[in-house]
Amino acid sequence: MPAEKARLAEKQEYIPLPATEPQQPHNHRGKFLRFSAYALLALFGLKAIVHTFGPAPRPHPHFPPHPHHRLTGAERDKLFLSVPNPESALAASRAYATHPHLAGSSADFKDAKVILELFQTEFGVTPPTALPIFSAGTPDSRNATLHLTSHHASQKPSAWVDVYYPVLNTPLDRSLQILGEDGSAVWEANLVEDADPLDEDVAKYADAVPTWHGLSKDGDVEGQLVYANYGTKADYDELVEAGVDLTGKIVITRYGSVFRGLKIKGAQELGAAGVLIYSDPRDDGYVTVENGFAPYPAGPARNPSSVQRGSVQYLSSYPGDPTTPGLPAYENAEREKGTNIPKIPSLPISWSNGERLLEEIGELYVQGKDGKRTLSGKASAARIRLVNHVDTKVTPIWNTMAAIPGHIKDEVVIIGCHRDAWVLGAADPTSGTVSLREIIRGFGALLRSGWKPLRTVVFASWDAEEYGLVGSTEWGEDFAEWISKHAVAYLNTDTSASGSHWNAGASPSLANLIKQTALEIPHPTVEGKNLWDARNDEGPFQPTDGVIDAEFLESYQSAKQESPCF
Fold it and tell me: In sequence order, which residues have a C-beta less than 8 Å from that of residue 102 and are 6 or more positions away?
């Protein structure tokens, strides 16, 4: 344990310690993201928000005046859409997606200040002598939001950071072993992902944030291993109906179908001692090693050592800080024992480790009486030891906020995206952060032209979303009455570029706007098509001569039919 803590101390920039000291931001490098996603978001954000009626806007005092010409709607659109560009998007992606930024870490705090500086620069906000970083619940924090819609609201844009104090955790030491008859380890899992040596950033930060489950339970447990497929309610019901007793067992499930927290919740309710969740190549469609594709980085198939980190909070119970349900997580908040987090330990593991462990069970499925494949419920002969030690503590997080006053100041449109990631987060959330940044730059150009929005616009770079929507939930609980009274729309840009097809979701009243906007954006890869056509793209799921898991294919096709854009 002392050696492990010493090693983690070296990673303090990427894993939060009890106190975080401010440091200056620095530049980083990253990945290219498709411009079509940014253009869509920019156009959608503009058409939904900026059409202005009423008195002519006055020039912003921080920008050159434009007294002789009021922009027409077409001119506003053209100016706004002239701002986002691939070079800017690439630079932003490289700045944000080439270093770990786990919520509550000093690297995360640096990024919060980078976004603050972006708001100040683009919106003409003069930086105050002291950074506008306010502890949530203080008058400065409360007034930064509440005064936006008051009779005495400023006509100038503003930018600030709200600091909340939820209970989060970070990994200490973890291990996973197969035990022999004498209780000693006969096999131990390697819980570190392989890194591509040709990718400088990935190689550098391969183990900067170890593989673990956010908000998982600290524990050291032993038990026989039982396979539970996806760990859905139907899977657990099937095992119970077959007479399988999970008491004291360690359940192993594959990722997919339901949120990872629910896999643990189901096992916990049936008396299991712990849960392992692995990434199964059966859920990768046709692009698998079995079908002749080389694993990453040599090819597109899954690297067998890759591990999916993620929170195991019971989001269906309630999101946000586990210890202050329904109330904002102020620094001095009264706390209770969280009921939306597991009571048994868990670990995320790779396919290479999962495959080895499943060998201990042998037969995973049997033929049912109706001829359908069912779970065998067999337990391994050997016992498995699962160790998951975590550091659980109150951790500061930083929501970076900005506002542009509108002609109708008491009606507010909110545009947001979360900023934190488990490690580098190139797609989730950096692609969304880059989209948000391009939208911010577009609004900056409009402000410099003397424009003012019809409604007040609030921008938010949320923190600690990965743990369970924490930053946005705490702000929502903090300003619930204000939001109910003044918010008229919310535009979310999280993970705006990923996957093999385009998709969007919104309130039904925005359906026509989304479709029309997508029809105006060119397809990112196919000439002559538009983004609306991309909703039918298949990517790696295109039929080939290879094999595909029937259960996964059924699940994929069902999800596709339920998607709002299909």
Answer: 14, 15, 16, 108, 170, 209, 420, 421, 422, 423
Which pLDDT tens digit goes with each residue over 233-287?
A: 999 999 999 999 999 999 999 999 999 999 999 999 999 999 999 999 999 988 9
Q: Which pTM was predicted?
A: 0.89
Q: What is the tens place of the pLDDT at every residue in 278-329?
A: 999 999 988 999 998 999 999 999 999 999 999 999 999 999 999 999 999 9
Q: State the catalytic residue, choosing from 13, 465, 474, 477.
A: 465
Q: What Å distances lie between residue 8 and 5, 18, 46, 174, 370, CA to CA?
A: 5, 13, 45, 13, 53
SS3 at position 486: helix
Q: Is 503 left (phi over 0), alpha (psi -120 to 50) or beta?
A: beta
Residue whose token pair is 């410099």 = 448
Q: What is d(CA 415, CA 407) in angstroms, rounded to the nearest whole number?
A: 18
- Whether residue 217 contacts residue 273, with contact meaning beta carbons closer than 8 Å, is answered with no
> Under DSSP, is residue 199 helix (H, G, I), strand (E, B) or coil?
coil
**Annotated catalytic residue 465:** yes
Cis peptide before 197 (omega within 30 of 0): no
The answer to whether the CB of 374 falls within 8 A of the CB of 347 is no
